[in-house]
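User: I'm writing a short methods note and want a consistent example. For GDP-D-glucose phosphorylase 1, I'll paste the sequence; you return only the structure tokens, no commentary, since I'll be parsing the reply automatically.
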Amino acid sequence: MAVPHHSQETSYLLPPDPEDWEKQGIPDFVYGQEDLVGKEIQWPRDSPSAVDTVPLSRFDSALRSAWRQRLELGLFRYRLEDLQTQILPGSVGFVAQLNIERGIQRRRPQNIRSVRQEFDPEQFNFNKIRPGEVLFRMQREPKGPATPKQEDDVLVVINVSPLEWGHVLLVPAPASGLPQRLMPGVLRVGLEAVLLSLHPGFRVGFNSLGGLASVNHLHLHCYYLAHPLPVEGAPSTPLDPKGCIHLLQTLPAPGFLFYTSGPGPALEALISRVCRATDYLSDHEIAHNLFVTRGAPPGPTSSTSDLSGIRVILWARKSSFGIKESGAFNVALCELAGHLPVKTSQDFSSLTEAAAVALIQDCLLPETQAGEVRAALVALMAQEEP
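Assistant:
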């Protein structure tokens, strides 16, 4: 049962009686082109940590109020408090956070054997969550015949083992049983979610199977982090004459950078390029991680204070199959971007930049294979129609 979405006064809060949660149905968060903010987002000049004083968009208010209510209702595996945070000394600018409870309480990851593994309805999936865990449904307002069709029912669901404040999942068409393979419709909603937020630290990401996705049911991660990250302004070089794909430099994990200045045809072109790249990686059994953030245009010199567009960074990496939990942190979408959720107090107090770099680089493809992937993705971009 869906809640009519024509009302501007939609409530995203649950009724007091848990027995009424399922009866209430899923409210729609309806948005249009005018809600997408491409520019004029920046970190507070005096202190990035003061970002929580910036105005909230309608999307931020809906997500944060509904998420906070679920936290108060005890729907998470643990109560997330303010996380102890440090910027590791060094040139990278890693943001390390101590999150002991996530290391202990999160659901045991599924045993993944292939990047292309099919969906298994017997395993945990997002059709098995409690009604109260769904915050709302993303609903794009049609505007003219050119509006692209997105997957139906992209649900915003709490991550019951949150990395940070506001950590949610975007789950498209859960009843369809889609495996964890990136699709254009859900990527579009993820990009639009970043554009709907006025918070410069609202990020979106994707882990493939073999890239530490713990559930084989299509989903993106979204969360707030009140700190700039290295990937926002890292310099890059173009890999093709048209500038469709760039290589990020000066990072422990070189990544492929796709960029758009905001909503419109350029956004659709970016979605097509990214999904062609991830399709290639999946078809060739190459695990990958993806991170979406506001950031600077590609170029040899950039700054984390320039958030004039959207950066999508894609990493091809070694596959990690089986259930592995070792090291100060696991290497997935946020760690590759420079956000390190650390599992123990001892590791948090002793972690150095050199140790973090070593952990991350241990997950990268061998140089020869990385070169082959780079050449293949550049060739894919060359096939794009002018």
